[in-house]
Amino acid sequence: MPRLPRDFYNRDTVTVAHELLGKILVHQIDGLARMARIVEVEAYLGPGDLAAHSARGLTPRTRAMFGPPGHAYVYLIYGMHHCLNVVTEPEGSGTGVLLRAVEPIANIEGNTRGPGLLTRAMGIDKRHYGHDLCSDELHLLAPLHETQEIEIVASPRIGVPYAQEWADKPLRFHILGNRYVSRK
DNA sequence: TTGGCGATTTTC
DNA sequence: AAAATCGCCAAA
């Protein structure tokens, strides 16, 4: 299967979010490839998006989100869970896509239905902050052909009621009918 | 230096 | 419905 090139990520964030659905996340640990299919994501559109961390501006924490596309923005939430984002658009944009749920394919143990759960199951944590997603260790693959056409459902993002008019925008996307989506 | 809080998950 | 748990960041 072809690995997604950096150019894939250097595009409009909503476009990338849509196209990430059905792609395969790969993390190599001790020669073992943990693989899972992305079934749910959320788009964060930069400093103007009040739900995005980058709305706070360039800080030590958001540095990776303002970095070049095709890298990982990992953060710790509620003091106990890691979340993985894919950085999109040209360097400095502060945009990215949160991976919220994946479907296990190979070498995966445990629940993957939720942003904190999928990072745990994939073995991803702060060590991967700013990590290159075009690397041998951590990258994404495009299936040669979809087993079936993917239907995308849009809905408001989870857990951002404070973001005022941005709270209700339909920037969460998931694969219609997939059982590994984090919520009904 | 300090205090409030969060792109969550689990349990009561 | 509420706890668990800690790094980030704005304010002082």
Any descriptors?
184 residues, 31% strand, DNA damage, mainly beta, DNA repair, DNA-binding, 3-methyladenine DNA Glycosylase, Chain A, hydrolase, globular, 8 strands, MPG, MPG_sf
Quick structural summary:
Helices cover 11% and strands 31% of the residues. With 184 residues, it is mainly beta. Strands 1, 2, 3, 4, 5, 6, 7 and 8 form an eight-stranded antiparallel β-sheet that branches.
What would you note in describing this structure?
- With 184 residues, the chain is mostly beta strands.
- The protein has one domain (6-175): 3-methyladenine DNA Glycosylase, Chain A (Roll).
- It is built from three helices and eight strands; from the N terminus they run H-H-E-E-E-E-E-H-E-E-E.
- The chain has helices spanning 6-9, 13-20, 115-122; strands at residues 24-29, 32-44, 72-77, 81-88, 95-106, 138-141, 152-155, 172-175.
- Strands 1, 2, 3, 4, 5, 6, 7 and 8 form an eight-stranded antiparallel beta sheet that branches.
- Strand 3 and strand 4 (81-88) form a beta hairpin.
- The longest helix has 8 residues, at 13-20.
- It is globular and about 40 Å long.
- The model has no long low-confidence stretch (mean pLDDT 96).
- The structure holds a DNA duplex (12 and 12 nucleotides).
Q: Helices and strands: which structural class?
A: mainly beta
> Which geometry do the CA atoms define?
globular
Unreliable stretches (pLDDT < 50, length at least 5) are: none
Number of domains: 1
Mean pLDDT: 96
In CATH terms, what is the architecture?
Roll
First-to-last CA distance: 31 Å
CATH class: Alpha Beta
Q: Please name the CATH topology.
A: 3-methyladenine DNA Glycosylase, Chain A
Percentage of residues in DSSP E strands: 25-35%
Number of helices: 3
Radius of gyration: 15 Å
How much helical structure, as a percent, in the residues? 10-25%
Question: What about the largest sheet?
Answer: 8 strands, antiparallel
Number of strands: 8
Per CATH, the superfamily is Methylpurine-DNA glycosylase (MPG)
Protein name: Putative 3-methyladenine DNA glycosylase
Family: Belongs to the DNA glycosylase MPG family.
InterPro entries: Formyl_transferase-like_C_sf, MPG, MPG_sf
EC number: 3.2.2.-
